[in-house]
Design brief:
single chain; alpha/beta; Nucleotidyltransferase, domain 5; 7 helices; about 35% helix; about 15% strand; globular
């Protein structure tokens, strides 16, 4: 187990629909990892902002598009109206297809970056493939969550508090967002895309 001072306080978010109750906020601080899941019909964005204000992470890693394809602001340099270079490379969903979620994530980034900390984009689904979680049953049956969790937990430097209460894939993805965050802090991460258009961190 690593010293609690080895990393700054960071957060990883699996970002969902505003009122669906699927957004999960993972916090790594003082040598432990905690997960917070928003309740159904509660504003997920306000939920995230309150947790950030309360815990003051130094970095926020979020599973959501944080930019639009470059053609919308530099048409002389880009020609793809649906995907950014990072999306094409990682076979991620188009920011345009996600529509309102992308707009909310970009607004959240603008607010959080201005008042609290930098916000960086991650893609847990791709990281799951890289870690071999598909073979463990990633996003298949709920009964396979403990098997996937055991693999994810080994990649994290801190223990997860209330680990037996992890019961859905949104919580797993929030943990994977934190894995990418720790990789970023160690400078062992991979970056995809173009800085001017939008980078995804794995």
């Amino acid at each position: 187990m690593m010293n609690s001072n080895a990393f700054p306080c960071i957060a990883g978010v699996d970002y969902g629909s505003k009122l669906a109750g699927t957004t999960v906020f993972g916090l790594a601080n003082n040598g432990i990892i905690q997960l917070f899941q928003v309740a159904k019909r509660k504003d997920a964005d306000a939920f995230i902002e309150a947790l950030i204000e309360n815990h003051r992470p130094s970095l926020l890693f979020i599973d959501a598009p944080l930019s639009l394809p470059g053609v919308y602001y530099a048409p002389q340099e880009y020609n793809d109206y649906f995907y950014r270079e990072a999306d094409r490379t990682l076979k991620a969903m188009s920011p345009m297809f996600l529509g309102g979620l992308t707009a909310r994530a970009m607004r959240l980034k603008a607010k959080v970056s201005q008042h609290f900390c930098p916000v960086l984009e991650v893609y847990p689904g791709y990281l799951a493939k890289e870690l071999g979680l598909t073979e463990s049953g990633y996003k298949k049956q709920k009964e396979q969550i403990p098997d996937v969790l055991s693999v994810v937990a080994k990649t994290l430097p801190y223990p997860i508090i209330d680990q037996p209460q992890i019961t859905n894939w949104h919580q797993i993805d929030a943990l994977l967002a934190l894995v990418s965050g720790f990789r970023y802090c160690r400078q062992t991460h991979a970056s995809f895309g173009r800085e001017a258009e939008g980078i995804i961190i794995i």
